[in-house]
Fold this sequence. Notes:
The protein has a two-stranded antiparallel sheet. β1 and β2 form a beta hairpin. It is built from 4 helices and 2 strands; from the N terminus they run αααββα.
Amino acid sequence: MAGTVDRRYQAQREACEAFIASQRHEGWACLATRYDDGGFSGATMDRPALQRLLADIAKIFDKLAKFDMLNQFVTHTGGGVFACPGGIAEGRFIGQRLFEAG
């Protein structure tokens, strides 16, 4: 059974990477950091990679708040929040600076 799960997991990963590659012209890029929780149930929040992802997202929000950039790109609409960034430089992706050290 584990081999079947691993193959399905790998197939999903490859499908996602192929889709991201198909959107490269829109500035999409696959992150170098992987948040894979193979073998952990998606029914729980107690997964190591998910916790790393949430911690990384918190760091991004901290950077946005520090430079007061959060309100610059966020429009509150009802119960949803939608990011509305400006133009992206050639060869970069939305939010790239947030993933850079510093």
